């Protein structure tokens, strides 16, 4: 039996709200994310981080869904990472203190949460990430246990689209909204499906529906059957069967999936995402001046289409062109910034701004003077004096030197006769010393 998941949800509201609004032209609805997470386990805690004094329209939907609103007080310098730090600290504290919480959901597209996701996985927690494919870092999508795209919530049958205002409960003017993107070709999923089936065959495990999907998510956490136009994974497998990609046996939810022989699988060209980067790089070079100060993503898409009329982002595994730009941003080819009014603005990435050549250090000009001063110091240096009682290279442990007692000055005064005698002696000239003649005795 699979372990029951007790999920704690942490919402970076500022990030997810502007991401959904700029890329999908919709208002963020927290209930859509919570409904998707309820299908995966029990939600036992819900927190949302924002400066709620500026999000009056969102407070009602948070209260309706019993989401605890954590006030983020902005710093005087407008530090936007304040909510990220608070969210990460609270999530780690819950991981330490609440052992029954075995799953975490991060509702955000910010790549700054990658260390948090890795640390929670290190503690044995299951980590879900809820965000948009168009603005969530692909690195974050691929390093969680499962990525749940906000695009998959759109235009579902029986679910009315909510229109809320950021300030108050007044109805907003309808704006151009993006519906769910066109589904991808099933051939795009076949490399992942075949790899997962091969893994199960090596384990000698019967490839059933649930086991096949969990294996696919282990290999690629960003996989979603809804990206291929399927409402459920069983429907996705049925589509694979109708397309003659796999052999399916059994029924009533107990399907067994087998790989088909390579000869029977229709040959379809599956292009790699990196191949599209070559074309994008050429277009960026051509329109470099137009993109230097930022341009709308739709304008860039038009330039790419004009340069190569048969370009289709879906053939490279991207449902929309904005998803392709999000992938190119992680490759440092472009930089995208969401804007509430203009949508997504595209700038040239770090690849077009190589680092400047290293300038000579200021100390290099003064190097001759430093060498001259160093030579003078070396010339002035002489042998180090040996101080009594201090260690030296000759005797690292010298014996302590006993200090000699100082002599006290004599208080006795010299006599007058002695002084006169010294003076007389000093005045008399010194007489030369006479040598005695040698004694010569008789010869024997």
Question: Would you mind describing this structure in some detail?
Answer:
The protein has 444 residues and is α/β, with parallel strands linked by helices. The protein folds into three domains: 1-175, Rossmann fold (3-Layer(aba) Sandwich); 186-267, LOTUS domain-like (Nucleotidyltransferase, domain 5); 273-352, Nucleotidyltransferase, domain 5 (2-Layer Sandwich), CATH 3.30.420. 36% of the residues lie in helices and 13% in strands. It is built from 15 helices and eleven strands. The strands form three sheets. A six-stranded parallel β-sheet has the order 3-2-1-4-5-6, sandwiched between helices. A hairpin with a 3-residue loop joins strand 10 and strand 11. Helix 7 (190-203) crosses helix 8 (209-219) and helix 10 packs across helix 12. The longest helix has 16 residues, at 82-97. The chain is globular and about 120 Å long. The chain starts with 5 loop residues before the first strand and ends in a 17-residue tail after the last helix. Residues 156-175 have low confidence and may be disordered.
CATH C-level name of the largest domain: Alpha Beta
- Secondary structure category: alpha/beta
* Largest beta-sheet details: 6 strands, parallel
Quaternary structure type: single chain
Count of DSSP-assigned helices: 15
| Extended strand count | 11
CATH topology group of the largest domain: Rossmann fold
Distance between the termini: 140 Å
Quick description:
By secondary structure, this protein is α/β, with parallel strands linked by helices.
